[in-house]
Design brief:
The longest helix is centred in the N-terminal third of the chain and has 24 residues. This protein is about 60% helix and about 0% strand. It contains eight helices and no strands. The protein has one domain.
Amino acid sequence: MERYRNAFRKKVIPWYYRGQLHVAIFSVIQISAIFYIGTRLDWGISTLLVIFFAIGYATTFTYFLHRFLLHKKLPGFGWAFKMHHWHHTFYQSHRMEYDHLDDVYMLLMPPWIQLFYFVVYLPGLVLVAELFLPHHLILPFAFGLTLWYGIYELVHWIEHLPATHWSMKLLFMKSARQSHAIHHSKLKDVANFGIVEPSWDYIFKTKF
């Protein structure tokens, strides 16, 4: 496994890539966005409901994107399937954890996708939301989507920490890691597509 990983790193990870920089830039953007939007919200019941609605939308989108785009070769999206295949070949059920920070190249979303999310996808979705939601609910919607993305990356990161890590003392994280390890087994194309929470896996009977 170690020989395979070393060869994989040399073949796939660009020479200029630095995991520390990747994590630092994403963290700064994510925390700044949450703080910026959060301090401009008029907190109340309606705000919380919209935030929960946005998170519900995001977890639904994540499930279907993961199951039907990243695990199938769809026309025009072969690159997405390939990148996700890299993730599954590098991280397998018996070797879920990364060795050093540059390995997050096969763990976190690529920097260009993270940039696309904040510059194109999120603003575009907010513009669409303006057609259906009152103006004062747009910021809560954007906050929910931003919060979800940070939660997704963080939980997925923790799921690839060693099984002995202190975070596994938390029942939720221990269960999430075990569930995600099953997804990285031979059942990867049929099981546990909900990376953060399993609601849609239960609904569509893909929970193992």
